[in-house]
From TrEMBL:
Family of this protein: In the C-terminal section; belongs to the HTP reductase family.
Function: Converts 2,5-diamino-6-(ribosylamino)-4(3h)-pyrimidinone 5'-phosphate into 5-amino-6-(ribosylamino)-2,4(1h,3h)-pyrimidinedione 5'-phosphate.
Record's catalysed reaction(s): 2,5-diamino-6-hydroxy-4-(5-phosphoribosylamino)-pyrimidine + H2O + H(+) = 5-amino-6-(5-phospho-D-ribosylamino)uracil + NH4(+); 5-amino-6-(5-phospho-D-ribitylamino)uracil + NADP(+) = 5-amino-6-(5-phospho-D-ribosylamino)uracil + NADPH + H(+)
A Pfam family reported for this protein in Swiss-Prot or TrEMBL: RibD_C
Pathway the protein takes part in: Cofactor biosynthesis; riboflavin biosynthesis; 5-amino-6-(D-ribitylamino)uracil from GTP: step 2/4; Cofactor biosynthesis; riboflavin biosynthesis; 5-amino-6-(D-ribitylamino)uracil from GTP: step 3/4
Gene Ontology BP annotations: riboflavin biosynthetic process
Organism of provenance: Maribacter vaceletii
Chain positions recorded as NADP(+) binding sites: 163, 185, 199, 211, 215
Keyword Ubl conjugation: no
Cofactor note: Binds 1 zinc ion.
Residues that coordinate or bind substrate: 219, 222, 299
Protein name, per record: Riboflavin biosynthesis protein RibD
Amino acid sequence: MFYFCEVKIHEKYMLRCIQLGKKGLGNTAPNPMVGSVIVYNDKIIGEGHTSAYGGSHAEVNAINSVTDTSLLKEATIYVTLEPCSHYGKTPPCADLIIQKQIKTVVIGTLDPHEKVAGKGIKRLKEAGCTVITCVLEEECKEHHKRFLTFHVKKRPYIILKWAETLDGFIAPETSLRKKNPEPFWITNPYSRQLVHKWRSEEQAILVGTNTAIQDNPKLDTRSWKGKNPIRIVLDKNLKVNKNSFLLDNTIKTIVFTEKKDASKAGFNTTQIEVPFDGSLANTICDSLFKLNITSVIIEGGAKTLQTFIASKLWDEARIFKGINNFSAGTKAPIIKGINLQTTQIDTDQLILLKND
């Protein structure tokens, strides 16, 4: 009975850690968005989450928030992810915990990073700490899904996003495009603002050539306060006009192409040569992994989305269904997955799928 109560107490504080960790969403990458609390006599005396990339880790911020540091020797520190044991931009968190003589460490899930991977736990145990692992492990894995996917699968966490009409089209027929080159909005303003929020949460955003040319998108977060993602364009033959928003150098942009052309690059735009063959999706993922990009949201078009679906290189799909019809045009991608949730956003329906 005592063990049951103890587990529930650990879960309570780990839930708070997850809540804190979410404050780092969109800012900590490629570091994980860790949350940490310090508890003394069943009272939280310190809290912290990972600072923006290059800043302090969650454990450091939690320890620094404690007013009476003499309590640390009798305290318990909770953390969503195994404390690091290596020097990066900051010293190892495991060493700091040992230095402060915190006796008990409760961890949500292990860190698969090759420089950690159990070494943090080993160091803590060797120093005499009591280490409790796998508390709310599934919830912590879900929280750290971007970081874990990156280090386990060696690719970014991939989110597919599109909007389709009631009759299953994501773009109108070409004749309508010629009359009106501006984007044809399928969704309402609330859904569009939500998409800008999503953009602020991911490290990069990707579109194909047709979307870049037909919509001339900015791919920024102008309708939401947050960091703009790195823009990625698949442009095999460099057809995208150099005067387009995507090549205006206001935001860091990567162009994947089969042939570089320096005249179409810029100080904030990088071209990467890749073969546009049947392995394109895998090649893109490999390249983004090497660039330390942990997550990407793919916003179109249909061909690009279907390429990643066919290669089974996706983790989530976020699909809006509007209330209008196009009757003809570009059909929406075909996808199968586990339906996680269906939500109504005013007139729009939002379907969330998980790759099974």
